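Q: Sequence in, structure out?
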Amino acid sequence: MDTLTNQPTLTTARFVLRPVRMSDLTRIEHYAADSRLAMHTPRLPHPLPPGLIAGFIERAMAPIREEDVWVMDGGTDNGDEVMGVISLTRLDRNQSEIGYWVAPPFWNTHIASDAVQAIVTGNPLGNDAMFASVFHDNPASAKVLTNTGFAYLGDAETFCLARNATVPTWTYSKKLL
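A: Exactly. Output:
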């Protein structure tokens, strides 16, 4: 049985952002195992080890957590179409870092833009600012951020598990309050 968290559900015109639940496990694992997706995220290794996504979901559902995770759910009321995942990781000074991925079948459909806009508009953690970073070789994700009002801060780098390498990133911020 799923544990409910105190996260709000946010609605867009095409899908809802709802808290992740254990029943999402097989769908998230299916997409997270895709090397094309893993190569654009810092935290997804490839190949995907057993139990990794279950642990991620358990941590996301814990009453005390550092990261709130939502599923981009385009299904009916029973939530049967996982299109991607978006999260906010708490930082100091009432800030958070936004992270997201969209499942490959939904690439180039503006799902990420809608999800980021919903998180920014809803500001579920009541943050003063949000940050994000994307790999240099993922300009579509950078466009999502700039179209949502994030400002470019500069270049950095982060380690990508799937690539087993440090990858250059662009870093962005958005003041909210």
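The longest helix spans residues 111-122.
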